[in-house]
Amino acid sequence: MRHADGHAPPIDRTPRALKSTGSRARSGTALQRSAHGLPSHFRSVSLREPSQDAPPGDGEPASAIDPALRRARRATQLARAFGALVALTLGLITLGALVRAHGAGLACPDWPRCFGVWLPEMNLRVGFEWSHRLVAGGISLLFLALSALALRDAELRPAVRLPIAIAAVVLAVQIVLGGLTVLLGLAPWTVTAHLLTGTTFAASLLWIACSLRDRAAPRPRPTLPTGCRRAVWLASALVVLQLALGGLVSSHYAGLDCNEWPTCRDGVWFPTWQGGTGLHLLHRTNAYLVALAICGAWFWSRRHAGVARPLRWAVWLVLAQIGLGVANVELGLRVEITGLHTLVAAAIALAMAAALRETWLRPVGTDGPRRCVVIVGAGFGGVATAQALCDTAVDVLIVDRENYHAFLPLLYQVATSGLSAQDVTHPVRSILRRLPNAGFRMGEVVDVDLAERAIQLADGARVPYDFLVLAAGSDTEYYGNASVERLAFGLHHVDDALALRNHVLQCLERATQTDDANEREALLGFVLVGGGPTGVELAGMLAELRKHVVPRDFPGLEASMRVILVEARDRLLAAFPEKLTRRALEQVRELDIDVRFGAMVDEVDEGGVRLSSGERLRARTVVWAAGIRGAKLGERLGVALARGKRVPVEPTLALAERPEVFVIGDLASVREHELVPQVAQAAMQQGKRVAGNVQRALVGEPPLPFSYRDPGTMATIGRDRAVAHLFGVKLAGRIAWLLWLVAHIVFLAGFRNRAVVFVNWIYNYFTYDLGLRSIVGRTRPLAAEAHGENARRPADAA
Ligand SMILES: Cc1cc2nc3c(=O)[nH]c(=O)nc-3n(C[C@H](O)[C@H](O)[C@H](O)COP(=O)(O)OP(=O)(O)OC[C@H]3O[C@@H](n4cnc5c(N)ncnc54)[C@H](O)[C@@H]3O)c2cc1C
Ligand code: HEM
Question: What are the C-alpha distances in Å from 93 to residues 135, 344, 354, 720?
């Protein structure tokens, strides 16, 4: 959610600035673009497009936009409009139920006018019936207008012709049935048919919206087993029957013919199958069959995401619906419950319609030879790409040197004993369990053979690809300063965090043992270089450690422990609006953190840090949070790297002249979008765009350019303190801190991690404890003479 310091392009890379400690994050909102040297359809692309699926281009002159982009944009806008119409129609169906429940069905005895006029005298019942007709009229007109717009477009016409024709016929029948319902005095068959056609109309609108979305983001659909198809059809048929039975129950006023549950009445399960009671019993019994059938269809199709997704909705809805049905009976047909029962019934029908459409569009039988998409890196970008490709007829292979996905935004908590390494990592294989077309290979990629379309692994294996997605992330940049690289701690990998945690704890232990005042001062000096989020967050946690943990575990040391934050510029968190950076500084100072502005690090040695001003800070712990560079793998592509050693890519995220090779996330520098920050959100959004472009390539459509949607930034400063700039709203203090907690829990991978981190935070909050203080694993030796190397990867240090 926020920019880690160093997770945006550096502002200045002159040799002088290389000493600097400047924060590198920048907001992605005020971006500028240039358009030279690009295919015409990538010019004039707005950066403020709100959605990934929605292709960019709002507000641009139509003539400058490539036809594919324009078509996709138009399809997306129309899909949204039809989606809104579906929601309106659901509202209308519910209103219809309320009309009936209020006994207002004949409040207007004539049709189409009411008491012979268009605007009758109002009372509650007339108002209900009249507003039902008014909304129905509005929806009909909107449908006609939107359909005309869609059909006028020659590109979209083939996709929407059939569902629009069906919807138009259903609408005509629905209008006639509405009239008949009134004219025939609410005859049960007209009421029931009116409910069914209303729902069918909503389903046809959904079909149109889905077809338009498919037009905007086309993809080859994988095959579906026949059994799965049959299960969905059977469940759908039972749902239609259930709707009809429901309509018959209500129109025969048989809602309370069975007035208890689970038995019908007087403790008897099935008193009779005749009349209203029979209808009611049929409705109940079929409801259980519907629930079983939907659960079965979902289970059968759970490995086919496009079909399983709407079915998952249907499962939840049908369970809720049974609860509402029972409430209907037990509470004596309360109006609001009846209205909700009808709304959920229509929603179940829509979910089934979406699943049916998917089964209808998928080929039967077995897949032919499938293209292989190789993704290097199981970080935010790589995983998002694989997830977005999960329902496409391709094979996906993720390659990573670790067997886990790491949630880097919480590394600083691992480094300060707040969380364990297991809490912020999640095995890649466990993520892939939900992605039936994806596999994993653990290994370090050392080279890319662009000509032969293969990657080379450190163990000698070569893996061929049809499409390659490089999502290898970034690393700490030391700007060639050997002393910093050798002696300062970076914070970019899980091992970095573990090494730092052990080192901090070791310093505290040693400080209790030494009588040498200088040594003690160095052991209790903690210098954080870089006033971006990582530096600020680390400083905040160390200050909390000093305040709450050190007095209990190392009594007496807290007074001598110094936390110093060194920043080259004159403000912290430079990516945030000025008001928030001021609030952040106040909060940092409340924690008694020593902030040095305008200070640059010249050298780090065993005893501490020498600043360019000549001042020396005695500290055994120096953390370098002031530099970031693209992962080393980028150097193997044979292209001139952009700022921050990132790989320059086209706005489509593909390498120039290599449309089958994409680079995303921290490693990529997107032409025309160079200021997209190096944050998790950008990596995930790029992953989705790449998946979309692979899918487009497979169906012969040109790729679309990426545009970044900036959700905002956050940084926390110890407990109860944070700043957040979200959707233009500036927040500081406890509210920002709570938002930060929620956002990080939501984005963590894996239920176990979410649960453990949540419990950990609650525990830490109430006990003022940071519980993970055992020194386990290898640590960097503390003796001054042993400071020979940066122990960033302790496991390798043997
Ligand atoms: C300390 C820290 C705090 C951060 N805080 C935030 C924050 O609060 N909010 C936010 O939005 N962003 C934050 N970020 C930035 C964010 O984590 C990155 O922008 C994001 O992880 C980039 O995603 P990615 O997919 O490009 O790379 P990563 O998520 O870094 O994943 C790269 C993957 O590639 C693998 N890999 C690399 N090279 C190879 C190779 N040669 N062979 C095989 N595998 C390889 C790595 O093992 C890794 O799994 C933070 C970053 C750090 C370091
Ligand atoms: C799959 C689950 C179900 C679906 C899809 C469903 C659907 C419907 C529909 C469409 C109606 C007509 C609403 C209207 O005319 O406005 C209805 C009415 C009704 N349903 Fe259900 N239903 C389900 C389960 C149940 C269950 C389990 C019960 C009872 C235990 C129940 C009890 C009723 C009653 C009492 C009515 C009549 C309401 C009235 O007269 O106002 N339903 N149902």
Answer: 10, 10, 18, 47
Residue nearest to atom 4 of ligand 1 (CA): 409
Q: Is the pLDDT of residue 55 over 70?
A: no
Measure 325 CA to ligand 2 centroid, in angstroms: 6
User: Taking CA 659 as the corner, what is the angle to CA 655 and CA 665, rounded to the nearest 5 degrees?
Assistant: 45
How far does residue 382's CA lie from ligand 1's centre (Å)? 10
Strands (E), 262-388: 371-376
Neighbours of 533 (CB within 10 A): 31
Q: Which residues line ligand 2 (CB under 6 A)?
A: 97, 100-101, 195, 242-243, 246-247, 249-250, 255, 261, 283-284, 287, 290, 318, 321-322, 325-326, 328-329, 333, 338, 341-342, 345, 348
331: Cα separation from own chain's centroid? 40
Give the pairing type, strands 394-400 and 438-442: parallel
Q: CB of 581 within 8 A of CB of 571?
A: yes
The predicted-structure confidence for 106-161, as pLDDT tens digits, reads as follows 778 777 788 888 888 888 888 888 888 899 999 999 999 999 999 999 989 999 99
Spacing, Cα 438 to ligand 1 middle (Å): 20
Element (H, E) at 344: helix 335-361
Protein residue with least CA distance to atom 39, ligand 2: 250
Task: Please give the Cα distance from 232 to 238 (Å, whole number).
Answer: 10
Q: Which amino acid is at 439?
A: G
Amino acid at the residue 414:
V
Whether omega for the bond prior to residue 555 falls within 30 degrees of 0, making it cis, is no
Tell me what pLDDT residue 367 has.
64
577: which 2 tokens?
């609006």
Active-site residue (options: 477, 485, 537, 650):
537
Q: Which atom of ligand 2 is nearest to the CA of 286?
A: 1
- Indicate the angle between helix axes 188-216 and 67-101, nearest 10 degrees: 160
Candidates 3.20.20.80, 3.30.1330.30, 3.50.50.60, 2.40.440.10; CATH matching 15-51+369-475+639-711: 3.50.50.60
Mean pLDDT for 9-29 is: 31
Is 537 known to be catalytic? Answer: yes
Cis upstream peptide for 262 (omega within 30°)? yes
Closest to 260 measured CA to CA, from 241, 281, 246: 281
CB-ligand 1 contact for 681 (6 Å cutoff):
yes
Which numeric CATH code is attached to 482-626+713-796? 3.50.50.100
Of 17, 790, 9, nearest in space to 479 by CA: 17
| Alpha carbon nearest to ligand 1 atom 25, residue | 381
**Does residue 380's CB lie within 6 angstroms of at least one atom of ligand 1?**
yes
Give the chain's end-to-end CA distance (angstroms, integer).
Answer: 37
Burial per residue of 40-62, b for 16 or more beta-carbon CB atoms within 10 angstroms, e otherwise: ebbbbbebebeebbbbbbeebee
Centre of ligand 1 to C-alpha 354, Å, is 36
Q: What is the DSSP code (8-state) at residue 68?
A: H
Query: Which percentage of the chain shows pLDDT scores above 90?
Result: 70
**Alpha carbon of 231 to ligand 2 centroid (Å):** 23
For residues 768 and 764, give the distance between their C-alpha atoms in angstroms, rounded to a whole number.
5
Task: Please tell me the number of the ligand nearest to residue 335's CA.
Answer: 2
Report how far residue 575's alpha carbon sits from residue 533's, in angstroms, rounded to the nearest whole number: 9
